[in-house]
Structure formats: C-alpha cells, structure tokens
Amino acid sequence: MPARSAPETRDENGTAVQGATSRTEPAPAPGGEPKPDSAVVRDALGVGIAVGLSGFAFGVTSAGAGLTLLQSCALSLLVFTGASQFALVGALAAGGNPLTAAAGAFFLGVRNTFYGLRLSQLLALPRYVRPFAAQWVIDETTAVALAQPTRRGVRIGFTVTGLTLYVLWNLTTLLGALGAEAIGDTDAWGLDAAGPACFLALLAPMLRTTRERAVAAIAVVLGLGFLPLLPAGVPVLIAALAAPAVLWFEGRRAGRGTAAESAGESGRGTTDRKGTDR
Length: 278
Prior knowledge:
Helices cover 68% and strands 1% of the residues. It is mostly helical. It has two domains: 35-206, no CATH class; 209-272. A two-stranded antiparallel ribbon has the order 1-2. A hairpin with a 5-residue loop joins strand 1 and strand 2 (16-17).
C-alpha cells in the first residue's frame, strides 16, 4: 500500500503547504507574542511575590476577627483563595453568623469553577494531576496563564505563579497571625483592603478594549450597589452579570445594523427592478 501523504493545507497566499497538522496550542492572547520561558517565569514570580506578601494582611485580619493561629493557617492551606478568606473573616469580625459567613465565602469562590473550565482546556494536564492543580485555580494564576500565547507558557505561568503564591501566602499568613498582637487595632490599619487592591492591580492592565472596560464599569456599579443590601459574596455573583449584559447589548445592536443593511439592499433592488421595467 502506498504511503499516505500528509494533509495539504494552504497558507494565506494560497500556496500549498505539505505536512501541516492541526494546532492544539491555545489561542494566542490578544496582541500577544511568543515569550521566552525566562520572561514567563519573571512575570509569574512578580505576581506571586507581590500578592503572596498580602497574606500577612490576612493573618493579621484573621487574628483580629478572633480566629486562632491554627484556624487562620488552615484557611490559607485548604481554602487558598484570598477574596473568600477575607470575606469570611470580615463577616465574622462584624459579628455575623459563622454559617452565613461561610456561605458568603463559598459563593464568592464559585468564580474559580469558571476559571477551571477554561484552564483545563489550556493546561491539558493528566487526570492524576488535575485534583492537585485545582487547588491553585485562583484569580492570579488564571490571569498569568491566560496572558500566555502557548501551552508551554500557560503551564509555566500557572505553575510558577501557583507555587510561589501558595508558599508565600501561607508563610505570611503565619507571620501575620503571630504578629497581630504587636500591631494592635487591625481595623485602624485597613489591611483587609490589601487583597482587593492586588486584584485590581492585576485586572487593570487586562482591560484593553471598550467592551472589557464597559463590563468592568457595570460590574463595579452592580457590586457596590448591592454590597450593603446582600450577604457577602452575593454582590460579586450579581456583578458577573455585567458580561452577558454587554454581550447581549452588542448582539442586539449588531442585529439592528444587519437588518438595516438588508432593508437598504432590498430597497435598492426594488428600485433597480422598477428602472429596468421602464
């Protein structure tokens, strides 16, 4: 039997290219160019170190809310999602019911599930690795991974960010909980704002298009508007509705534009036929 030739594809100029195979690499990030591994590691370390140090703020805030050293460290080791951890200890510090506080933290952490759906495709990890990698699916690892144009870059960015952040976050949580007594009134320092500030610093450079800025602006309005009305975590879920709302509006506007073009072409066609009949 004669050997089968490789499938033929054509480049953008129409020239036949032999041996081309389908790409399994993730789609490049918008405006992204392939990066050397050292650049990916440098970016990942920068994010991991910057955000990891804010674990100190969580340790201090957690101790100020009445949690023991063991409880504070267990939260960072097992939960490992800063927004949910701050929401939990913030609700407890305000005198909230522990179950309600835990429910709010849980709802706030639901967003990591959606991150995981996307990252599972980009990382393409073996099944036995996925349960361990799932522990590192958070805002920061997702932001770094999605910014990479190749699967290798995605894996390096995710792993280095996750490892650096996990180690530093837990270490600084321990130091913060131990040093809470020396700091005194933790509320006066406003350390609970460190987590959201780091998240905003990560998010801002990613808002490149008008659509992304519109989604962010509407999400801010929804989140802040419902913050005093609903339990912790729920306003974040409502703010997530900004994305489908903007997409729906754009689709509706595009549909109107298409309908107007069709009507215009139909009108021109009718005029042309009348002119021909004459």
